[in-house]
Structure formats: C-alpha cells, structure tokens
Specification:
The chain is an alpha+beta fold. It has helices at 22-35, 53-68, 77-86, 91-98, 116-130, 143-152, 157-163, 169-184, and strands at 2-5, 10-17, 40-46, 107-113. It is 51% helix and 14% strand. It is globular and about 45 Å long.
Length: 188
C-alpha cells in the first residue's frame, strides 16, 4: 500500500513477492540501474529476514532523515534504506545480511518516489518482470522467520527477556530490530 511521507515530499511502497527466481530480481535491478530513472528508488531484500513492514518503514524514514540532515552514508535513499534495515554501516555487510542472494525466493521491495505515478509504474514493472502479484504475507512474522532473524541480527536471550512485553515474542523481535536500525543514526 502506498504511503505519503509529506515531511520528505515522498511516496513509498513496501511490498513483497513469493517464490521469485533470484535471476529475475537481479535482471530487473541491472536493467533499471542502466536506465537510471530519476525520482525513483528501488531496493530488494530477503523477505525472510525482514521483521514486518514496520521494519522497512522505519528504515525508509531513517534513510530519508539521513539525507535531509546530510548525514547519509550512501549516495542513494535505496542504499541508505538497506543500511538502516540491516543495522550496518557498510554497504557490503548490509547486503550480506539482508540483501537478496541466489538462494532467496521471497523478496521484500521498497520503492521511494516523489511521484505516485512513477511509484505505481515501478511496482507494475516489478510485478510484470516477476510474473507474480505482490504478496505482503511474505513480510509477516512466523516462527521459522523469527528464528532466522534472531540468528542474523544476533539477538540475545537477555535482550529478549529485558524487552518482552505482554509475552508477545514476535512484536519484541520487531521492536528490537527497529531499535537497532535507529541506533545506526547515532553512530556517525
């Protein structure tokens, strides 16, 4: 679902796709980098390592804030988003942590644009390239996904026990990931 971030004069879309061949995603990214479409930023993530749409939403907010404050690490909001989503300061480490890889089959996508029309066109292009309709369920938490996220982000039992509220394990994981991403901004 498209959202308007008025304070940044941007529109954003966060969605996912299920059972996508890595080659198709890589082909799409290479083709669009060559075209260098102005006012459109697209980033792909391994959806099995994304702790809900909120995880990516806050990564986008942090990335746009970094550009607004001129504290960005990377040259594009799309790349800055993967840095915040991964809670890493180095692009290579960010991609290794949550970027798409040959074994990735569930893909999360963020699209940022000044224009809602361009944003919709980008989503339609991705959908056409993947020959698959968006499936936001790949962004939802599951037991299997939770375990992978805990391992990938090195969340300790102590952190979980300290921050758990109302015995909501998955919500605690989401909050810890968002907190890690927010802390990246303090590491300037």
């Amino acid at each position: 679902m498209m959202q308007c971030l008025k304070e940044y004069s941007k529109f954003v879309e966060i969605t996912g796709y299920r059972n996508i061949a890595f080659a198709k995603a890589e082909e799409f990214l290479k083709f669009n980098r060559k075209r260098n479409i102005p006012d459109i930023e697209i980033q792909f993530f391994d959806a099995d390592l994304i702790a809900s749409p909120q995880h990516l939403y806050f990564a986008i907010i942090n990335a746009l804030q970094a550009f607004q404050n001129k504290t960005n690490i990377s040259k594009s909001p799309a790349m800055e988003t993967i840095l915040y989503a991964s809670a890493q300061r180095q692009i290579q480490k960010a991609i290794q942590r949550i970027g798409i890889k040959p074994e990735t089959v569930n893909i999360a996508v963020t699209v940022i644009s000044k224009s809602p029309t361009k944003l919709n066109t980008a989503i339609q292009s991705i959908t056409h390239c993947f020959s698959s309709e968006p499936d936001d369920k790949v962004l939802e938490m599951s037991k299997n996904k939770t375990n992978r996220i805990i391992k990938t982000f090195q969340i300790t039992d102590k952190e979980l026990k300290t921050t758990m509220k109302n015995n909501n394990f998955q919500e605690t994981i989401v909050n810890l990931i968002i907190e890690r991403a927010a802390l990246l901004a303090t590491q300037i």
